Amino acid sequence: xxxxxxxxxxxxxxxxxxxVRKFAWATVIWGIVGMLVGVILALQxxxxxxxxxxxxxxxxxxxxxxxxxxxxxxxxNAIFTGVYYSLQRLLKARMFSDLxxxxxxxxxxxxxxxxxxxxxxxYSQGKEYAELEWPIDISIALVWVIFGVNFFGTxxxxxxxxxxxxxxxxxxxxxxxxxxxxxxSMAIPVEFLKSYSVYAGVQDAFMQWWYGHNAVAFFLTTxxxxxxxxxxxxxxxxxxxxxxxxxLHFWTLVFMYIWAGPHHLHYTALPEWxxxxxxxxxxxxxMPSWGGMVNGLLTLRGAxxxxxxxxxxxxxxxxxxxxxxxxxxxxMMSIKSVNSLSHYTDWTIAHVHGGALGWNGLLTAGMLYWLxxxxxxxxxxSKKLAELHFWGGTVGILLYMVAMYVSxxxxxxxxxxxxxxxxxxxxxxVETVLRLVPxxxxxxxxxLMYFGGMCLMAYNLAMTWRARPAKYEEPVYEAPALSSxxxxxxxxxxxxxxxxxxxxxxxxxxxxxxxAAWHRRWERLPVVFSVWVAVAVIVASLFEIIxxxxxRSNVPTISSVTPYSPLELLGRDIYIREGCYNCHSQMVxxxxxxxxxYGEYSKPGEFVYDHPFQWGSRRIGPDLHRxxxxxxxxxxxxxxxxxxxxxxQSIMPPYPWLLTDDTxxxxxxxxxxxxxxxxxxxxESINRxxxxxxxxxxxxxxxxxxxxxxxxxxxxxxxxxxxxxxRLGTDIKKAPAEPPGQPVKTAEAR
Amino acid sequence: MKLTDVMSGAGLAIYAEIALIIFLVVFLLxxxxxxxxxxxxxxxDHGGMPLDDGRQAGAxxxxxxx
Lengths: 750, 66
Description:
The complex is a heterodimer of chains A (750) and B (66).
Chain A: E1 6-13, H1 18-44, H2 59-91, H3 98-118, H4 134-156, H5 165-184, E2 187-191, E3 194-197, H6 201-219, H7 222-236, H8 243-256, H9 272-298, H10 304-307, H11 311-334, H12 336-342, H13 346-376, H14 383-416, H15 429-434, H16 437-466, E4 477-482, H17 495-498, H18 505-515, H19 517-524, H20 526-550, H21 566-577, H22 592-598, H23 633-641, H24 643-646, H25 668-677, H26 685-706, H27 717-727
Antiparallel strand pairs in A: 1-4, 2-3
Chain B: H1 3-8, H2 15-34, H3 40-46, E1 55-56
């Protein structure tokens, strides 16, 4: 296709399919693990005792394992499978380094295993989809660099001048994921597996959802679009319907996606302008996303008759359709009035599973079924089993999503319902939860069907693998080497100029610009192209980040807000360890239905010492931002020991170990010191954290005993957690703190 | 004086709107460039790249994945 740029010297090479096979197996194995954990979690909602009473298997600890396993282990390995297979063939080159390929593979699997061990043990940064602690975060960055070097090294030694659009999507993913991961994971290490985010409150929330939304964009969307643009034409044996549309699709996503993160924070303490900007760009994303969907589906033009017989095409068509559904629903949910109903409900759960199971899961399955005969060099073991997987999985997703839509809208409407006297119709939160339990069972059935499909695929691929040849054939390919000279500048002559058309000189210039030789050069110069992608992403990010961080009016300070006491800080760490944010928000939105139920709406200035923020994104249980002082200490003791003793129909699991495990005051000084490094004004506690923590714990312990509770709890974790819970949302009720320059009040003073 | 003071006093209320317009204009230029008629054939030829796996040594034509 680019013979003019070649030297004419023929070179022979082979493709490294061994690494593709490794990643394909990892995709299947981790997919099963991640989805099995999802099924267990789905069971725990109607049956909380399904955690078997173990701290390691509670919803709060397993949910991050589920999301990380499905996103980074299943989808991640699927991306690498698709990239390693397609990149080599699109560039007519073997991967840059087999060693780097292996290091990438084993490094990524090590990270997944580390996540699978640490998350159930409660080691978490408390930020959704970014829970992994700092040593693992550093490992991710290192392995990502290895992947990047191997990727760009392959691009550098390619024998095909033009970079196909799929490679543009891969490049955007590699660059942007690196930027997102590094900046969102900035944290101060406190212990080997404990750190605090350098950002606090509003800024931390902004960074988290800048990361969280763009992890969806650049980990679960752009690489899969690259795979769609490669594997759909392969499976249909048709070229891409419109290559120009694919280019437009690419640049639109790069320019627009990065802005959309704040739509996850509508009606929160985030500045209103950022929220509106996120909504606008989200709505704008709808059309280009559908352009991409249409481009994918129309690639099957003239081949639709094949879909009935070809299970791979069935998976691809369903996947692209789910992409279309998700990219319509996402912009719709980003509209503030819709979001006010959908946010914190199962509607969001339906949306993300439509994307993850429908788009990512089905595209991955189609790709693996297409690859299996080619990688294992034999026929697929059973097309019937693959068909069963397709129909079972698709019906399973639909069951799941319909149940969650009904559940989400039901709960959202119940939260905001008022009776004719102007009071909340359902003031008791648990009433709204109980209404959802039947839908949780339907969700479990849908999830089981999808999980069953994954198991069928694993069996089918394993049987195909068993029939492989004794030794894989490794075909030798040949292609002319590319010239090592830089891409020659093309002489551009404006057709109007050539015809000496009677127009102003500026018209010639405009036409020359639009002929865009400059962009043709970019398309062939991966470094320049990558730099422009990075510039687009970074500039867009800075336009939102700089004002959020540096304009003071975005986070008005509240003089009565003071740092957490050392004991409260320990309690907050327990809250994070147990993953409470997975079920409880800490953000009362400025809506009457919320202020009636929870109290005063949350202010940006209340979170300035929250490293990390704990606003949450789902309310399986009620919001906790104003829970401080609402119940006596003893209520919390009873509730954590057995939630059904205080709320008979609660679906929260018990946490009895909090009443027996020691708080461990030896670590408090280090944690206070770390907070002080982040600028939290700790005053006297900076040197006497342990002493203050014990003092406050004795006070709370004696109050629990006085309320008729058990004695001897002062050194137990429950007291630290109670200290934190009783503090939540109470600062704005206090008298203002002393003006700057005065000693800051400590736990002792309080 | 801190950077926060400078930024807070800079009156950047329309900062985000300016960014939105810049990005929209750049996007429109890319769209115009992509759909300009003279590039049609060159670009659409690239749409078939996935179908070409390369030529096997000794074979007369490029190999399409079976």
